Amino acid sequence: PYSPELNPVERLWDWIRRYYLSNRIYQGYDEIVDVSCQAWLEVTNDNERLNSMCWFSWIKSAEIN
Question: What pLDDT was estimated at residue 63?
Answer without folding.
Answer: 54
